[in-house]
Every structure is written in structure tokens, then in C-alpha cells.
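Retro notes, item 3 of 5
We never archived the inputs for the heme C complex last cycle. Fixing that now. Sequence and ligand:
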Amino acid sequence: MSSLLFPRWTNTVSRLTAALLLSLPAVAIGGLMLYVRSPLANAQSHPVEQPFEFDHRHHTGDEAIDCRYCHHMVEESSTAGIPSTTLCVSCHAQVWNKSPYLAQLREKFFTDQPIPWVRVHNLPEYVYFNHSIHVNKGVGCVTCHGRVDQMAAIYQKEPLTMAWCLECHRNPGPNLRPVEFMTSMTWQPEKDPGLRAAQIQDLTAKYDVHARTSCDTCHR
Ligand code: HEC
Ligand code: HEC
Ligand code: HEC
Ligand code: HEC
Ligand code: HEC
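Structure as it came back at the time:
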């Protein structure tokens, strides 16, 4: 019975695995540690090819559609949300409704299938992140995502490493803006040093912003 469940070759396999595990940890862990810190692993700056025609440059910008129209959960929820096919069609039933660029969209809509977007930003499972607290306390989209309105295909602008999160969390003040400009791609802070110091102080007080560096802020 046992020989049926565990044929002889499994012994060899487990011995080999054990040997590998015993001899390789230093190399493997070293390699992994380098890998997780490399831009390769966090895909920074590489535009991610999407299986589907969609261009933020034609849909966003301060004079165009607000980010929250499509990423409508960003103020209330941990995730920003990706728009449904129905939302696209709510405009494209009128705008460019005959365009060949939208053939794919029409097909998905009429066959009731979701669009298989490829994720660009993806933190490890063990990290807790929440959009709503950031945007409601005055951290704008552009601060973490860059000039999305100029990206043909979205790429990860910032490293999203723990060091990057902590750099802001130690002293968030200089990264704050009035929440009315949360989605603005072009808002600029005060230039004059005196006015700038007052602006940082005002925004920090107004949104009751604190440094947050304890481990359980992000690892729960
Ligand atoms: C008309 C709808 C629409 C608008 C407006 C819009 N987006 Fe998007 N956004 C999408 C869609 C669809 C995707 C998924 C496809 C992709 O990654 O390009 C996406 C993806 C993203 C991603 C990458 C998500 C991931 O996978 O990590 C970011 C970041 C983003 N949008 C930020 C913004 C910001 C910032 C604005 C405002 C300046 C904005 N978007 C405006 C529809 C929109
Ligand atoms: C609020 C209205 C609105 C929504 C919602 C919207 N679009 Fe558009 N879309 C437009 C307008 C306006 C244009 C034309 C832009 C131009 O002329 O530069 C356009 C252009 C396009 C084009 C052709 C030009 C290009 O950008 O390559 C595609 C493809 C497209 N949209 C896909 C989508 C998809 C997919 C969604 C859903 C994620 C979507 N749109 C949601 C208004 C909208
Ligand atoms: C403090 C930095 C920060 C700010 C501010 C921020 N984001 Fe993000 N965003 C992230 C991170 C980090 C992720 C990846 C989250 C994950 O993997 O769980 C992300 C993911 C996304 C995604 C992918 C879907 C999701 O929710 O995971 C979209 C879309 C997005 N952000 C849009 C926006 C928009 C729109 C704004 C402004 C209204 C915004 N973000 C503001 C850091 C930020
Ligand atoms: C540009 C500034 C900035 C960056 C970058 C940033 N944060 Fe934050 N974060 C803030 C601010 C401001 C707050 C609110 C602090 C307060 O007053 O409680 C905050 C709060 C949080 C909270 C508290 C949520 C809660 O419900 O208590 C979490 C979790 C968090 N951030 C995770 C992250 C992670 C993970 C990253 C990196 C992927 C990150 N943040 C990057 C500015 C930033
Ligand atoms: C502001 C958010 C934030 C805080 C606070 C934070 N971390 Fe992290 N941590 C992250 C993010 C994001 C990652 C994943 C990206 C990376 O590995 O840099 C991470 C990864 C890690 C890892 C994985 C191993 C590694 O280095 O790649 C460990 C271990 C860790 N954190 C421990 C801690 C400890 C201990 C503390 C408290 C001293 C802490 N973290 C505080 C955001 C945070």
C-alpha cells in the first residue's frame, strides 16, 4: 500500500530537494533579496502592455475627465477600482461609436465579458495599503502615480518599496495639497519659502496629519 502511495523515486526526489534546500539558501535568499529590490521586480518605469485599446492621454488631464469618474472608489475605499465595460460604453455609445478602435470594446460589451486588464501596481499580500486615507488627507494621485495624463500606457512611476513609503510617512507635510486638487496633474506648491512653510503647516493642521512609522500601520 505505502509503496503505491509513495513510489521509490519520490525518495530520491525528496532527498534531492533536501540537499538543494540545505546547500542553496544563502544563494537563493541573496538572489531573492536583490531581485525584490531591483526595478525588474517592481516593474518600475516599464509601460505595461494592455490587451486592450485605452489611452489615459485621451481621457485625462485637468480639463478632461476627472480620475474619480472611472476610479470611483478611491475616496471611500482601500482600492481605487477599475471601470466596468458599461461605464466605457456610457460614453462610447455616443462618442466614437463607429470607430474601429472601439470594436474590441463593443465586442466585450455585447458578449457581457469583462476586459482582462493587466495590473500595473501590485504590493505584496502582507502590505496593507489604503487609498482613501491618502487622498482624504491631501496626498494627490500624481505624487504616487506620476503624470498619468501623459502616459500612453500606464507604468509604475515610483518604486513602491518600504523605504519609499517611509520617506513620506516620516514627514508627510511637504507632500500635502488641498484636497480640491487631489486629482490635478499640474497643481504647484507655493514658491516663496515663507509662504511655503505656512502652507505646509496649514495643510498638516487642517487634515490632522501625523507621521506614521510603526510597523503595524502597514503590516497588520
Ligand atoms: C475614462 C476612464 C478613466 C479615467 C478618466 C482615468 N482612468 Fe486610470 N485607468 C482606467 C482603466 C480602464 C485602467 C486599466 C487599464 C490601464 O492600466 O491602462 C486604468 C488604470 C490606471 C492605473 C493603473 C492601475 C494598475 O493596474 O495598477 C492608474 C495608476 C490610473 N489608472 C490612474 C489614473 C489617474 C491618476 C487618473 C486621473 C488623472 C485616471 N487614472 C483617469 C480608466 C480611467
Ligand atoms: C466620460 C466619457 C468617456 C468614457 C467614460 C470613456 N471614454 Fe473613451 N473616449 C472619450 C472621448 C471624448 C474620446 C475621444 C478623445 C479624443 O478625441 O482625443 C475617447 C476615445 C477613446 C478611444 C479612441 C482613442 C484612443 O484613446 O485610443 C478608445 C479606444 C477609448 N476611448 C476607449 C475607452 C475605454 C476602453 C473606456 C472605458 C475604460 C472609455 N474609453 C471610457 C470619452 C470617454
Ligand atoms: C500614497 C500613494 C498613492 C496615492 C496618493 C494614490 N495611489 Fe493609487 N496606488 C498606490 C499603490 C501603492 C497602489 C497598489 C495597491 C496594491 O497593490 O494593493 C495603487 C493602485 C492604484 C490603482 C490600481 C487599482 C487598485 O486600487 O489597486 C489605481 C486605478 C489607482 N491606484 C488610482 C489612483 C488614483 C486615481 C489616485 C488619486 C485619486 C491614486 N491612485 C492615489 C498608491 C497611491
Ligand atoms: C507621499 C506621501 C505618502 C506616501 C508615498 C505613502 N503614504 Fe501612506 N500615508 C500618508 C499620509 C499623509 C497618511 C495619513 C497619516 C495620518 O495622519 O494618519 C498615510 C497613512 C497610511 C496608512 C494608514 C491607514 C489607516 O487606516 O490608518 C497606511 C496603511 C499607509 N499610509 C500605507 C502606505 C503604504 C503601504 C505606502 C507605500 C506603498 C504609503 N502609505 C505611501 C502619506 C504617504
Ligand atoms: C508605510 C508603510 C510601511 C511601514 C510603516 C513598514 N513597512 Fe515593511 N514593507 C512595506 C512595503 C510596501 C513592503 C514591500 C516592498 C518592499 O519589500 O520594500 C514592506 C516589506 C517588508 C518586509 C519584507 C522583506 C523585505 O525587506 O523585502 C519586512 C520584513 C518588513 N517590511 C518589515 C517591517 C518592519 C519590521 C516595520 C517596522 C519597523 C515595517 N516593515 C514598517 C511598508 C511598510
